[in-house]
Every structure is written in structure tokens, then in C-alpha cells.
Design a protein that fits this description.
Largest sheet of chain A: 5 strands, mixed
Number of helices of chain A: 12
Mean pLDDT of chain A: 75
Structural class of chain B: mainly alpha
Radius of gyration of chain A: 39 Å
Shape of chain B: globular
Largest interface: A-B, 50 and 65 residues
Strand content of chain A: 5-15%
CATH class of the largest domain in chain B: Mainly Alpha
Shape of chain A: elongated
Largest sheet of chain B: none
Strand order of the largest sheet of chain A: 2-3-5-1-4
Number of helices of chain B: 8
Number of strands of chain A: 5
Strand content of chain B: under 5%
Helix content of chain A: 55-70%
Low-confidence stretches of chain B: 92-104, 172-176
Radius of gyration of chain B: 18 Å
CATH superfamily of the largest domain in chain B: RNA polymerase sigma factor, region 2, helix turn helix motif
CATH topology of the largest domain in chain B: Rna Polymerase Sigma Factor, Chain: A
Helix content of chain B: over 70%
Distance between the termini of chain A: 29 Å
CATH architecture of the largest domain in chain B: Orthogonal Bundle
Mean pLDDT of chain B: 81
Number of domains of chain B: 2
Oligomer: heterodimer
Order of helices and strands of chain B: HHHHHHHH
Structural class of chain A: alpha+beta
């Protein structure tokens, strides 16, 4: 049956029966069917097939579904208030998903790089900021962190920030004074001193040092005693004492022996502290705003994810700054003294070498200590980098899982999907 | 009687009666849609419910550019595909497995089900949408996102295949 012998092809006969032909074409088809036995037979077959179809009946829908639908909709609405994760419970087209994944990965990568950049810049920024620079930067932060306004591209923002940092460094070098207005609780000075003392009575000096530190409510940041076989013993310590008592402590330390070297420095961190406090408050404010946005607005999945990511980044910054602030406060409250006490070496005839047992013991102790320090270092690193790793891991694992699933589906699943 | 689209717009404006009316019009058909395509009646029921929940939640975004039923069946088809992906991942069950729930039905019913089950997946989907959901060729094309010509030719192939099965089964009733 082709168009040379029939004015209608077989599919058109079917379309006619289904009422899918245009009116003129349909009446022409009706006329043709009257004349053409072949087409009539085809039409009869098609009708016969369609007549059989209703035999396949489906039982009545279980009662009470409408109530369940309304209830489920309410529950989902309540549970998912901060943003619908799936669009109407329907899978997104795969291309849209992959684009979203790609964008997210890029953003994560950018955020990581920026985070690292900011960490290296933090020191410079802290030392350098003028208040005006602080204000302008905090406004640029706000622009960048607002999820609805795209702001400058990250690279531009970074460049701006870097140039601000360098110019602020220059300004700070030119004008190291005039910082009184910055602090709310008086100037904040980090005091450091270093002292090298030569003593004849090493043991006495050492016990005097320990008593001294205890008496002034200080503590040893670090203490190393070296006892080489053919030289005088030496003690190197970092002593932390309350800043107000530093002068008194130094006076007493000088009495431990002959002072070979002494050095004092005071670093004013008032502005850095104010800067950090302001940035911290600013970041907290941003976090609050972001959380509000997440709670009050519903949007696209990608928007929600973006806001969530922004929140976690902000939190990370807050924690980092909080830690910096605490460190700084600690540095201000406690002055640190780098102390070196050396024993005047008296050559003696009997210099017994350490016994084999002692040496083994020492090596074991040192080995153990090194291992413990390594473990501690690893633990600290995990604690500090862990959250970031988890976030990045999740971001990488999702597309990977999606990819694996897609590949597996393509190669192993039976072809059950509706063909597109 | 107002059209589906009008009802949906009324529901958008906050009329719960409009939704009830739409539900009554489509619940059974939608249940049939899933029931004929899935082995488990409970899953069919849940998915029917999910489609209506999606309609409820997406009501604000509904625009009467397309027919309501095209919109409804588009959601249903996507949910069905998601369901099949999921079940093919979890338990690779044969799609044409006879389900005990329907074993007691009439012989003709079982025959139709069996014959439809032998069709190629893509053709079967179109045939079902035409015969049971009674969608037009254009609507089927929209719901499955394929060209109308493809719908027509696959539907024709599906019906021809069914005719062969029908003739093979009962030679007397073929040429009525």
C-alpha cells in the first residue's frame, strides 16, 4: 500500500481513525475508505486492536487518596520550607544537573583558592589596615557575599583586595602612630623580650627560674635543656608571664648570672585587633543575613546550594578570625621571654660517656616523642583542614557518584526507560 | 463544565474546590497510568499521590500554555522514569513479570496485558498513552518530548504488532 496506488498511506488511515486528520483530509479519507477494500481491511484491523484494549482494566483507586495528597503536600511544605530540593519531585534533565554540578565544582575550586589566598594575605592585612581601608573592604566583602548580586568576578575582587592590602601596608609604614582611637579598651601591646645569661651554678639557676615563673603566675611555653658531654650545659626556654609583671620578671632573671645579651620589643596590635574585631562582627552579620535568606526565601536548587556554601565559607572565616583574635588576646595578656641560660664550662677530667642502656633509653624516648608529635601534628592538621575536606569531598563525590551511576545504567540496566 | 486549565487557574487563586474537581477527574486515570506500567499496586498508588502533590506544590508555577493533562502526564512520565531507574538499580526485575494481584482477571485482560508487554518499550509507551490515557498525537509528542511523526509511526508499528498477536491468537476475529 503506497502513495502511487493509494491517496492515503497506512499511517494516515490510522490517523483518520484516531481523529487526527484535518477535516478536509478526513472527509477525503472517509470517501477513500468506502472505495478501497484494502484500506477498509486495515481500518477494521486497527479498530479490532483498539477494541481489545479496554479489556485490560485497572481496579478502582484506593479510597481517601485526596486527603493523603493534601496531607503529604502540607507535610512536605512544612519540612522543606527553606527551599525545594527537587522541582515538583521530578528529576531534572541530566544536562541541567551536569551544568549545575560543573558550576558548583568551579565555585568550590574558586572558593578554595580564594580561601588559601586570603589566609596568606591575612597577616599582611592585619598589620596594614587603615580604618578607611577596613571600611571599603568590608563593603566589598558585603557585595561579594550577597548571593543575589553577583558582584565583581572573583579574580577582580582578589586583585582589588591585594592592591588594597599593599597600599595599606605602605600607609601603615608611613604612619605608624595615631592609633589611639582604634581600641576601646586601651592600647594592646604584645611584649617580647629575649635574654641570654651565663651562669656558674646551672642547677641553682634553673631551680630559681622555675620558682620565679611559678611565683609570677607564668608558664613555660617551651623548655629545652642540653647536656653535651664536653661542653657546658644550656637551657633554652620560652617563658610566658603576665604582661604587667614582665619588668619584675626581667629584673630577677638578670640576677641568674651574667647577662650576655638582652633585647626587648613591644608590638602595638591595637589597630589589628580592632580590625579583626570589626571583620569578625561583619562576618557574623553576613552569616546571620545568609541564614535569614536561606530561611525566608525559596529558590532554585542551585541558589540554595550557593547560599549554603556561602554560609559554610563565612563560618569558616568566622572561626579562623575568632581563633586569631584569641591568640592575639593571649599574646597581649602574656608577654613572652626567650631565655637562654648557659653554664660556664669547667673542663673536668671525668666526663663519663652515657652508658649504652641510657643511650638506648634516650633514643627510644626521642623516637617515641617524635612519633607522638607527628601524630599530634597530623591530628591538628585533620582538625583544621577536616571540614574543608568534607565539603570538597561531598562536592566531588556527588558528581562522581552520578557519573558512575550513569555509566552503570547505560551498560548494565535493561532498556526500560521511555525512549526519547 | 469548566476546562481543566480554568480549574487550575482557579486553584491557583486559592479555590480548593477546583483542586477537588481536578482530582476527581484525573485520580483514577492517573492511577491506571501507573498501575498498567508498574508491577506493584502500592507503588502505583504512591506515585499517583506524588504526582498530585507535585501539582499542588507547583501550582504557583503552572502557566496555561499547555493543556493541563499534558502537564499532568509529563510529571507522571518523569516520575515513572525515575521510578524505573531506581528499581532497575535496586532489583533488576523483569518488567513483564506477571503480578499475582491481577492473576485472577479475565482471560482477555491477561492476553491484552501480555501482548502489550511484548511490544518494544518505546512503542508500548506510546500505545498506552493513546489507548488508555487517550492523549492526542500532539500531546503524546509533548509528554515524551519526541516529534509527532515519530509518535505516529511508532503507534502504527505497535498496533500492527498487536494485530499480528491478535490474529495468531484467534484467527476468526481478526477481520471484523
Amino acid at each position: 500500500m503506497d502513495s502511487t496506488t493509494h491517496p492515503f498511506n497506512r499511517e494516515e488511515v490510522m490517523s483518520y481513525l484516531d481523529g487526527e486528520l484535518a477535516p478536509e483530509r478526513a472527509s477525503a479519507a472517509a470517501a477513500h475508505l468506502e472505495q478501497c477494500a484494502e484500506c477498509r481491511a486495515l481500518a477494521a484491523d486497527l479498530r479490532a486492536v483498539s477494541r481489545q484494549m479496554p479489556e485490560w482494566e485497572v481496579e478502582a483507586i484506593p479510597a481517601g487518596m485526596q486527603q493523603r495528597v493534601l496531607l503529604a503536600a502540607e507535610q512536605q511544605e512544612a519540612a522543606k520550607a527553606p527551599g525545594a530540593r527537587s522541582w515538583m519531585g521530578v528529576r531534572l534533565p541530566t544536562w541541567a544537573t551536569s551544568i549545575a554540578v560543573a558550576v558548583l565544582l568551579l565555585m568550590a575550586f574558586g572558593a578554595l583558592r580564594q580561601g588559601r589566598y586570603e589566609m596568606t594575605q591575612t597577616a599582611a592585612l592585619l598589620r596594614a589596615k587603615e580604618l578607611s581601608a577596613l571600611e571599603s573592604r568590608s563593603s566589598s566583602y558585603a557585595t561579594r557575599e550577597s548571593p543575589n548580586a553577583p558582584g565583581p568576578p572573583p579574580a577582580v575582587a582578589l586583585r582589588d583586595q591585594a592592591s588594597q592590602a599593599t597600599s595599606a601596608v605602605a600607609m601603615a609604614k608611613k604612619a605608624p602612630a595615631a592609633q589611639a582611637q582604634a581600641g576601646e579598651s586601651g592600647p594592646m601591646i604584645v611584649r617580647r623580650a629575649s635574654l641570654a645569661v651565663l651562669t656558674k651554678e646551672f642547677d641553682a639557676a634553673r631551680s630559681a627560674l622555675e620558682n620565679l615563673v611559678k611565683a609570677h603566675q607564668g608558664y613555660f611555653g617551651e623548655l629545652n635543656v642540653a647536656t653535651p658531654a664536653s661542653a657546658g650545659r644550656s637551657l633554652a626556654a620560652t617563658v610566658r608571664v603576665p604582661a604587667v609583671q614582665l619588668d619584675a620578671v626581667l629584673v630577677e632573671l638578670r640576677k641568674l648570672g651574667r647577662v650576655e645579651q638582652e633585647n626587648q620589643s613591644a608590638d602595638d596590635v591595637t589597630r589589628e585587633f580592632a580590625d579583626l574585631t570589626a571583620r569578625l562582627a561583619n562576618a557574623r552579620e553576613t552569616e546571620k543575613r545568609l541564614v535569614e535568606i536561606l530561611r525566608e526565601r525559596t529558590g532554585k536548587v542551585s541558589d540554595v546550594l550557593q547560599v549554603e556554601q556561602q554560609i559554610s565559607r563565612t563560618r569558616q572565616q568566622i572561626e579562623q578570625m575568632d581563633a586569631e583574635r584569641k591568640t592575639m588576646e593571649n599574646q597581649v595578656r602574656y608577654a613572652s621571654v626567650d631565655l637562654r641560660i648557659t653554664e660556664e664550662y669547667k673542663q673536668s677530667l671525668e666526663t663519663p660517656a652515657p652508658s649504652l642502656g641510657t643511650r638506648i633509653n634516650n633514643a627510644a624516648v626521642e623516637g617515641f616523642r617524635d612519633a607522638a608529635e607527628l601524630m599530634l601534628g597530623l591530628l591538628l592538621w585533620l582538625l583544621s583542614a577536616g571540614p574543608t575536606l568534607v565539603v570538597v569531598g561531598a562536592l566531588v563525590a556527588w558528581p562522581a557518584w552520578w557519573l558512575v551511576r550513569r555509566v552503570r545504567r547505560r551498560f548494565f540496566a535493561p532498556g526500560v526507560a521511555v525512549s526519547q | 463544565m469548566s476546562s481543566d486549565e480554568k480549574l487550575m487557574l482557579e486553584f491557583q487563586k486559592g479555590s480548593p474546590e477546583a483542586f477537588t474537581e481536578l482530582f476527581q477527574r484525573y485520580a483514577q486515570r492517573l492511577y491506571g497510568f501507573f498501575r498498567r506500567r508498574l508491577d506493584h499496586p502500592t507503588r502505583a498508588e504512591e506515585l499517583t499521590q506524588d504526582v498530585f502533590v507535585a501539582v499542588l506544590k507547583g501550582a504557583a508555577r503552572y502557566e496555561p500554555r499547555a493543556l493541563f493533562r499534558t502537564y499532568l502526564y509529563s510529571i507522571a512520565v518523569r516520575m515513572l522514569m525515575a521510578e524505573r531507574r531506581k528499581s532497575s538499580r535496586e532489583t533488576p526485575i523483569s518488567e513483564n513479570a506477571a503480578e499475582p494481584a491481577q492473576a485472577a482477571q479475565s482471560e482477555t485482560s491477561a492476553w491484552v496485558r501480555d501482548a502489550v508487554g511484548r511490544l518494544e518499550t518505546a512503542e508500548r509507551e506510546i500505545l498506552l498513552l493513546r489507548e488508555y490515557e487517550e492523549l492526542s498525537y500532539d500531546e503524546i509528542a509533548q509528554v515524551l518530548a519526541i516529534p509527532v511523526n515519530t509518535v505516529r509511526s511508532r503507534l502504527f508499528r505497535a498496533r500492527m504488532a498487536l494485530r499480528e498477536l491478535l490474529v495468531a491468537r484467534q484467527p476468526g476475529t481478526g477481520g471484523a
